[in-house]
Design brief:
Length: about 475
């Protein structure tokens, strides 16, 4: 649930965890015999995270520790056999506060032992991950000795601990996908613009669904905002520059691609100023280009605006009828200004205007596209992203290479999380989480699989023969 809240409406998360389960088939509660396994197959996931190993450390189970590598490998291969061919990610077990001297002296068959988890189970998981080419997420390090993240048994995470686990998985996921950010006004944000507008129908979410696995799209639109600066003679118009949390999130997100969609709210005749619009839009592009690694930027030609009942829509409060969002201003002034900006800044244009000239039925209020219109925008952006290079992945390959180089240069990619409501326990670069107790070390805890030693490979072959 906590991971789903961070990923947003484009992602469906199923929790198939069961208490007391272990991966060893001969254990007292093997996951293999549970109904959740066929349920997971029926779910047809794109990614499966496996967090098993803690309960294998019980003396009643670890007596059969020689089977761990064989059974963990078989479990991974079973999951890979799903019809959806999911990515399988191994989650290293969290720290356990129950410790024993080495070698352990088994005195309680129900106790979990940190010594055995750290000394044997985690290395064996890493061995399987190397052999199976799995991604590994280290949940052990960020939870190490953080007693405030556990209930009194020092084994089961409390709410803050669950937040930490979700945050680590989320940040690791971000580090592994191609990230797209949609920045703009209400046509981007969508929620609250027309009757029944829900987050899942916004075009950034639809775009994420079209792009599929390997991509993550963030909706950073804010209804009623303009790219014009707040001090440019339009005090009645909200400026995107004033949306500090959104801009902070954009920089923290480190997108590969940013799609900008402005020009609609600025089209009111009493507000429009060509020179100021071009200057502010150019400054926004220059600002986004300071993100490291530098993302690719594309600007959208805004959807057209139509009169309803002989009036232009969305007149500002207290304004006259000529103070509404004006389709003539968009055609005569905004579109030429965007062409000039694109040429001056060397960015590509995504044309949302031309296709919608024949789609007035999707804009009942003359301004905001409905769910069908949002789906159309997503398809237009999808074609722009995936077809213009002929490479099958879309966009400039140099952009992906730049981000890949940045990821390879550091074990931990530091991402400042979103501070929107519902994400209060995400972590700052300093590693401190508001209200979560002890700070957690910053960064993405992503462990690169280590290749198995020759002796380990030989041992595995012998076990398979047996």
């Amino acid at each position: 649930y906590r991971l789903a809240a961070r990923l947003g409406p484009a992602f469906l998360i199923e929790n198939d965890g069961i208490n007391s389960m272990q991966v060893i088939k001969s254990g007292n509660h093997p996951y293999w015999t549970q109904a959740r396994l066929p349920q997971a197959f029926a779910f047809q996931p794109d990614i499966v995270t496996v967090k098993l190993g803690t309960n294998d450390s019980k003396p009643i189970n670890w007596d059969d520790s020689v089977s761990f590598v064989k059974d963990y490998t078989a479990f991974v291969d079973t999951l890979k056999g799903m019809a959806s061919h999911p990515q399988v990610w191994s989650l290293l077990p969290v720290w356990c506060g129950q410790t024993e001297i080495w070698p352990p002296v088994w005195t309680d068959t129900s106790t979990h032992y940190e010594t055995w988890i750290l000394g044997s189970i985690i290395p064996k998981i890493q061995q399987v991950a190397a052999a199976e080419s799995l991604n590994v997420i280290d949940l052990h390090t960020p939870m190490l000795n953080k007693t405030s993240l556990y209930i009194s048994d020092k084994l089961h995470p409390n709410n803050a601990g669950a937040d930490t686990i979700a945050a680590v998985i989320y940040r690791t996921f971000l580090s592994k996908v191609k990230r797209v950010a949609n920045v703009g006004n209400g046509i981007t944000s969508y929620v609250g613009t027309v009757s029944g507008a829900g987050a899942i129908d916004a075009h950034p979410i639809k775009l994420n669904m079209l792009l599929g696995r390997g991509y993550y799209v963030r909706n950073l639109g804010v209804t009623g905002t303009s790219v014009m600066r707040p001090d440019t003679g339009a005090p009645t118009l909200s400026s995107y520059w004033s949306q500090k949390l959104k801009l902070d999130s954009l920089f923290a997100y480190k997108p590969h691609l940013v799609i900008l969609n402005f020009g609609t709210d600025e089209s009111r005749p009493k507000i429009w100023n060509t020179a100021k619009f071009i200057a502010a839009y150019g400054a926004m592009i220059d600002t986004i280009r300071t993100i490291v690694p530098q993302p690719e930027i594309r600007i959208a030609r805004p959807t057209p605006v139509f009169q309803v009942g002989g009036q232009w829509p969305a007149s500002l409060p207290g304004g006259s009828t000529d103070n509404g969002v004006n389709g003539n201003t968009i055609n005569d002034s905004v579109l030429p200004a965007l062409a000039a900006i694109a040429q001056a800044k060397g960015v590509k244009i995504i044309d949302l205007n031309t296709p919608f000239q024949a789609l007035q039925s999707t804009q009942a209020d003359g301004l905001y596209p409905n769910a069908a219109g949002q789906d159309t925008i997503a398809h237009i952006e999808f074609r722009s992203i995936t077809t213009d290079t002929g490479s099958g992945v879309g966009l400039n390959p140099k952009i992906w290479a730049r981000h890949a180089a940045a990821a390879a240069s550091s074990r931990a990619i530091r991402l400042t999380p979103d501070r929107n409501p519902g994400s209060e326990r995400m972590y700052s670069p300093a590693g401190r989480a508001a209200g979560a107790g002890e700070p957690v070390a910053a960064g993405v805890y992503f462990t690169k699989p280590v290749k198995a030693k020759a002796s380990e490979k030989t041992e595995k072959k012998v076990e398979e023969k047996k």
